[in-house]
Structure formats: C-alpha cells, structure tokens
Write a structure and sequence with these properties.
By secondary structure, the protein is of the alpha+beta class. It has one domain (2-140): Sufe protein. Chain: A, CATH 3.90.1010.10. 45% of the residues lie in helices and 19% in strands. The mean pLDDT is 91.
Length: 151
Amino acid sequence: MSDLRELYQEIILDHNRRPRNFGELGDANHQAVGHNPLCGDRIVVQVRIADGRIEDVKFTGAGCAISKASASLMTDAIKGKTIDEVHQLFGDFHRMVTSELDTMPPVDRLKKLAAFSGVREFPTRVKCASLAWHTLEAALQEDHRLVTTEA
C-alpha cells in the first residue's frame, strides 16, 4: 500500500508542478469562479461545450498543491465527456473524498483521480481537492455566483 500512496503523491506533485490545461480559454461558453477562503485557493474554470460534450476546458488561478493538482487532473479527465458523464464523475470524485472506504466508487472508474483518495482523512484538504469540481459544476449550470467552500 505504501507504493500506491507514493505513486499517488507523485501524481499530485507532478500536476502541481506542471498543471495541464492551465491558462485562459478564449472561446469558452461557460465559466465560473471559485474560492476557498480557508486555504486561499482561487480558481476560474472555463469550458467550451458543443453538442452536449466538453470540447475544451482550462483553468487559471492560484492555490495549494492539492487544489491546483485537482484542477489539472479534473480538466484532463473531463475532456470529450458528455455533461451527464461529467456529473457522474463529479459524484464519484466527491464520494471518494468524503465517504468511508466501504462506500467509495471503484477506483478503476476514477483512474488518476484516485490519487486524491487519501484526502478524505484530512477534512480541510477535501475543500482544496473539491473546489475545482464545484466550480466546474457552477460553470455547467451557468451559475455566475462565486463558488465557495464555506457554507
């Protein structure tokens, strides 16, 4: 299990150092802004949707390693997916980081996103890992209010 945990840590560190899909998406047709006041994470998620699919997605902002890596891995995972598939993936991710081990979704469905499975042990880090996902959900619903991790 130690080797798996090390692999997961390396995935998170790699996506933090070299985030994928980082930058402005000039022709985005959906966008939302998120903020985690506890950690100071700020993110903008921009999405281009055509025919019910994610054609492209990018993010900008600044935050902790977990927040940035989560946004990077999320953007990789959702490209080309339908909106319904993205909602299902969000549900699986959210269950993974908030649920007990016996109710977690199968890791094979989450692929590299499973790197965040250990986050559930640290409740304040759950907010860092899920900020990009909640911001994406707001963008898909065209909700222009600031997304925050605080109630």
